[in-house]
Amino acid sequence: MKTRCIALLSTFAFAACVHAGEPRTDSYVENERDIAVEQPGPHEGTGTTTAYPFFDDAEGFETIFRKRALHPGASIGAHLNDKDEIYYILSGEGELMLDGETRAVGPGDAILTRDGSRHALYQRGSEDLVIFIVYRKRPATPTPTPTP
């Protein structure tokens, strides 16, 4: 089966793969209230966040599409990226550290962090910093077959 990948950037970033030939019959809708997970700040960040891992269990779907709310005092800790990744700020105020430079970010800002880039994101202000995060899943590492 051939796969054709397309990317669309609108009010948020989204990438999807469309299978040519057979129509898919496993499309569905998820609501954030059903998948919300309270977590500490990722990458050893501070505070509390709420993650909304949309379509994490979708078979054959190669895109991570996540909403995350960084509650007051929360952060995504500084880390070296091992993939290209997009953050899109929906609401709130934040401070982005990207490759040693710091700047304020807010609603409407889209951030591209490349493989090898170092970054962190800090919630600032009194309201949650709410973002979409989009990146391509890494292929599963095959389990080595033992030799007799």
From TrEMBL:
Keyword Metal-binding included in the entry's annotation: yes
UniProt keyword Signal present: yes
Gene3D superfamilies: Jelly Rolls
Signal peptide start-end: 1-20
Pfam families (alphabetical): Cupin_2
InterPro entries in the cross-refs: Cupin_2, GPI/OXD, RmlC-like_jellyroll, RmlC_Cupin_sf
Entry-linked SUPFAM superfamilies: RmlC-like cupins (SSF51182)
Keyword tags: Metal-binding, Signal
A single GO molecular function term of this UniProt record: metal ion binding
Annotated Cupin type-2 domain residues: 70-135
Origin: domain of life: Bacteria
Name of this chain's protein: Cupin domain-containing protein
